[in-house]
Amino acid sequence: MSAVEKSSKMHSKVVIIGSGPAGHTAAIYLARANLNPVLFEGFMANGFAAGGQLTTTTDVENFPGFPSGIMGPELMDKFREQSIRFGTTIITETVSKIDLSARPFRYWREMQEDEEPETADTVIIATGASAKRLGLAGEETYWQSGISACAVCDGAVPIIPVRDSAAEGSDLSDLTKYGSHVYVLVRRSELRASKIMAKRLLNNPKITILWNTVATECLGDGDLLQSLRIKNVSTGEEKNLPVNGLFYAIGHEPATDLVRSQLQTDPDGYIITVPGTTQTSVKGVFAAGDVQDKRYRQAITSAGSGCMAALEAERLIAEEE
Ligand code: FAD
């Protein structure tokens, strides 16, 4: 592996924080442009190992170039290999603190916050996002074995969405394209979704809404989810609902703790970029991938914005030289 860690107090032209499709695509472009990018891949950062969300899934069937599909971890190994091939320095550590108030930007690795910081002329934030969870009994056992938070990715499985916040309508519509019948659990007696989304759900013959209902436990044979324990919060009545899929549509959490107080973010914490670019509210700081995208959240769109961030960083560095 050519990814050898440099001396600890390094300065680089560009630092990439995050190792999903966005971070690695940015690295490939920057390394090919001879800008010697440094990529922090994180050590169990944001709940994920290096490589990001795709390391937690099996078949990826919609990433172009792999007509027979590819396993998520294998795809991310290939991204990493390609980054290294062109000279990216990959560091298996988490950036835990960053100061974006002046350039060069200063940042610290986890456990080294008392030491001298390292510095970079430009920074690409590609720290991703993670699905919010309900923390149900049995959830850990059946996560990705019947429970999913990505309708587009796992839509081939008949699924029951749990819905207890403003509806992610497009996700739910996706599910009904694949699943035979979909139950939507709503904790209240009304939907908080926009009127048009609510109407779409209510009029869909493949959807049954269970009002005032919450899930309490995921049950199965230890390998696959087979039913869901549900409770009517008005009557207290409990029962088992036989299902072979459970889809969480309760939103995602962007990994922006590192920069939330320094970059402009939306009310959900997603980094705001100048439309059509990856430029954040601080010159020289770019954001790519799920950390700035609450709409598409796909590997290919993350890779696309990673490419944009690299080209924008490269252009800025060239202008300033
Ligand atoms: P992520 O993949 O989220 O990676 C970010 C990584 O950055 C983290 O893992 C972590 O290691 C690192 N990191 C975070 N914070 C720090 C820090 N402070 N310092 C250093 N490193 C840090 N999309 C598809 O297109 N097709 C699919 O089939 C598909 N299937 C999916 C299945 C599952 C189960 C999930 C969860 C997602 C799936 N997706 C799929 C969505 C896809 O994985 C994401 O859209 C994509 O991974 C987002 O890429 P990203 O580069 O923005 O960040």
Q: Would you list the SSEs in sequence order as H and E? A: EHEEEHEEEEEHEHEHEHEEEEEEEH
User: N-to-C terminal Cα separation, in Å?
Assistant: 31 Å
**Percent range of helical residues:** 10-25%
> What is the total tally of β strands?
19
Detail the poorly predicted runs: 1-7, 155-159, 161-170
SS summary, helix count? 7
Small molecules in complex: flavin-adenine dinucleotide
Q: Which structural class is indicated by helix and strand composition?
A: alpha/beta
On the 0 to 100 scale, the average pLDDT is: 87
Strand residue percentage: 25-35%
User: What is the radius of gyration?
Assistant: 21 Å
**Mind summarizing the main beta sheet?**
7 strands, mixed
Principal-axis shape equals elongated
Domain FAD/NAD(P)-binding: 13-155, 175-306
InterPro entries: FAD/NAD-bd_sf, FAD/NAD-binding_dom, Ferredoxin-NADP_redctase_2
GO molecular function: oxidoreductase activity
Keywords: Flavoprotein, Oxidoreductase
Short description:
This protein has 321 residues and is α/β, with parallel strands linked by helices. The chain is 23% helix and 25% strand.
